[in-house]
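Quick question, first post here. What does this chain look like in 3D?
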Amino acid sequence: MDRNIAYWFAIHTRSRHEKQVDMFLREKSINSFLPLIRTLSRRRDRREFVDLPLFPGYLFVNMTLNSMYDVINTRGVVRIVGNDNFNPTPIPDKQVNDIKLLLSSNVKLDPYKYLKNGVRVRVKVGLLMGVEGILLKRKTNYRVVVSIDLLQKAASAEISIADIEPID
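> Answer (accepted):
Ran it through. Tokens below.
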């Protein structure tokens, strides 16, 4: 990586400090991006819309490696995310721009667990609640594949991506 070229990095913040860290970084003239989603807050005495982070505990900064010290020493910053604790890993511009596009499109967004093809999942609602299997994407639909290892046979059922959760 070139030390003088700006890359996008993910910043891990203290719990519920994303907005403050974003403000502190902007005060230091560091280009930051905190994706927020408007959600209805359901408190006992009132209901109102609030802006919550799309990725709780994280925000993005576009910085050079030379400005890393200024970012890491910002109040509320825990670390710059990387593959290991010592080398921050840049995030591809395309991924950050895709998130910006989603936010600007005014479609309803919800935070969701990171899932990928082939991950073990569990159905959490509906008729198939409790079923465990492998996530499979076919064309535009998602399927959960349930295998009987001893028989080396499997069956798949179409499922909504919102109805499943990854198995740890």
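The chain has three helices and eleven strands.
The first helix runs from residue 18 to 27.
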